[in-house]
Design brief:
The structure is a single chain. The protein is an alpha/beta fold and about 240 residues long. It is built from eleven helices and eight strands. It has helices at about 20-30, 40-50, 50-55, 70-80, 100-105, 125-135, 140-155, 160-170, 200-205, 215, 220-235; strands spanning about 15, 35-40, 60-70, 90-95, 115-120, 155-160, 175-180, 210. An eight-stranded parallel barrel has the order 1-2-3-4-5-6-7-8, surrounded by seven helices. The radius of gyration is 17 Å and the shape is globular. Pathway: Pyrimidine metabolism; UMP biosynthesis via de novo pathway; UMP from orotate: step 2/2. It comes from Floricoccus tropicus. Its EC number is 4.1.1.23.
Length: about 240
């Protein structure tokens, strides 16, 4: 059964995983006249700083994906700076704890930026979680635990695999946002992701936002690839 949600973002969030600002602007130029939802991550932010976020946010909605994880006071002050960048969405690591997430929310007060938290990265397998994080529950139990802590802290939702979205909504609420990376059209290369799902399946399971990078950004025709993925997600 498909979830009925009060809100679902119908556009794929395009991961701008480029190594230069020129590549970013050349890519966005292909979509002239369209307002996209795009993700700016660590690579671009650490190279170009807030300026590239401000530039892109003038014409597009931005998910600033920095995954903050530090002591509460530091995260609160960092979020106060992010609040000035006019981004639609940003995130922290749920592993930082409820107090840190509450501090992050305080830092965003007065802005329209939604805050979500990373549960387990979609590049993490259950075996890796057991071996390197020494978390001995199942991967799904870990993700649900982090989701409940995120809801307790008052955040809007989580970053998770689409495979976990249904269980997260059952443990929290239908309005709790599930943003899901690791989306690949049927037959596409998986790359470094471990827990991948097609756009159509992600929508059926309960994803509210899907993040797609290389299948769009490295496509021979990025506009066509974007439109095809959007059609699959909204079918």
């Amino acid at each position: 059964m498909e979830y009925r949600r009060n809100f679902v973002e119908t556009r794929p969030v395009i991961a701008l995983d480029f190594s230069s600002d020129k590549e970013v602007y050349d890519f966005l130029e292909k979509f002239k006249g369209q307002r996209l939802f795009v993700k700016i991550g660590m690579e671009l932010f650490y190279k170009y700083g807030p300026e590239i976020v401000k530039q892109v946010a003038e014409n597009h909605d931005v998910f600033l994906d920095l995954k903050l994880h530090d002591i509460p006071n530091t995260v609160e002050r960092a979020m106060a700076n992010i609040a000035e960048l006019n981004v639609a969405l940003t995130n922290v690591h749920a592993a930082g704890g409820v107090e840190m997430m509450e501090a992050a929310l305080r830092g965003l007060e007065g802005s329209n930026t939604k805050l979500i938290a990373v549960t387990q990265l979609t590049s993490t397998s259950e075996e890796q979680m057991h071996e390197f994080q020494n978390i001995q529950t199942s991967l799904l139990d870990s993700v649900i635990h982090y989701a409940k802590c995120t809801e307790k802290a008052g955040l809007a939702g989580v970053v998770c695999s689409a495979k976990e979205a249904r269980a997260i909504k059952d443990a929290t609420s239908e309005d709790f946002i599930c943003l899901t990376p690791g989306i690949r059209p049927a037959g596409a290369e998986v790359g470094d992701q471990k827990r991948v799902v097609t756009p159509a399946d992600a929508r059926k399971i309960g994803s509210d936002y899907i993040v797609v990078g290389r299948p769009i950004t490295q496509a021979e025709n990025p506009v066509e690839a974007y439109e095809n993925i959007m059609e699959q997600y909204n079918s």
